[in-house]
What does this fold into?
Amino acid sequence: MGFLVLAVAIPAHFWALSQRPALEWDEPVYFSVASNLANNDDLAVRQPIGVDEHYLYQPPFYFELLAGWFEVAGESLASARMLGAVASLVGVLLIFLMLRRHPGGRSAVVLLLILTTDGWLLYSSRIAIIENVMFPVAILGLLLYRNALESAGSQRARLVRYILAGAVLGVAAALKHTGLYVWLVLPINWLLVRRDLKGHMAAMGVAVAIFLAYLGGMWFSYGPEFLNQYRVQFYRAIGHVSSRGSVGLMDLLKAAAGVYATFVGTILAATFSFAILVANLVRAARHRTLEALRGPNSLYLAWTVAAVISFSVLGLRFPQYFMLVLIPLYLYAGSEAIQSIRQHQAERQRRLAGFLVLCGIIVAVNGATFVNRFVLSNDNAILEASSFIASELPHDSVVLADEPIGVLIPQPYMPMDLWALGRYDSRPDFVVTYSSLTEHLPDSPSLQHLLSESQRLLTVTGFKETIMVYEVHQPS
It folds into this structure.
């Protein structure tokens, strides 16, 4: 039955992948880097005016993988999305293997159905982001870790299994640094299970060693250039440097009540799951013991707590990161609900019926979300705006635009963030602005003054963003 659900998930991941959903912020940039790597053997995005640097803000392995994928599947944004969808399905399969072990049986199929139909998870899996490749590796690491924790064998054999799990978790962090959050799962879960301390330390030690080897290799290959870009990303992550696209709590609430309300199934499932998490944590705190948190769901709990802590502290809270929280949250809450049903024999039928009704409502709403967001909607603001610029504006004109649009147009461009910081003295011929509930224009008086002296040529409204193209009045 579970494999039937997986089979149904395949068309949901691949249907009309090239057009739906609309291009997301990072997709054109990542495509540009991989395309340049495939054609010119150069790890660089299409360069703005006055910029000549490698693209080291993200680890290079995804781009190398994507460049190789282009040789097999062709070079296009749709092909890049296909790689992410394939990787996401691998992640779903690994989660199913987790669920077959616990809670097992038909319960595993119910939880798998929730995961594979969730609107936000489908949305995230259908775009070309690094997390879609990193996350299955992280899930594999946790699956190997659980096998090591539950294995019988000799102490030496168990230690080898822990080391293998740590190695995979180290690779996950090297693929995308957000994978570092999964490392927290091990010490949190150890606090709950209180066994195999040496195995946990070995796994963490190997993961750290692999990540340090990655950092050393990047320093050896690119020197100060890597250090400078890595420092920028680190400062963004801790909130020392602001980054457009990251969201705060109020941004999240406004988006959930606005354009993201179409993902009502996700909001419903996440609210139900978070309520179970908070209730269990409050109960444990009230009794001042971890005993109530121990049991077969401890790994899912540790994974969820690690995700919540990491992305609460992290300065970068991009919308796609929420899938890294939702998946363990669903696994924990669903397994807890099923365990509660199994333990209360007297009320088992009533509780089971209520749980299945809730799950049925969530799946039905998720189906409606899929139709509304992927079948009926065909907006693509970034692609529409960049196509207008490429076809209607002179190719020798200078365009001020954000990087995701700049890499898609033939005109030379100046990046919006650098221009707003005063890195350029010249005025552009055209300005392209991108704004949404979670992506605001730079807080720059110079930009506002420039826009006041410009004439708007085009306005494109997408699912969540508004893009405007302006012609700048040039002083005579």
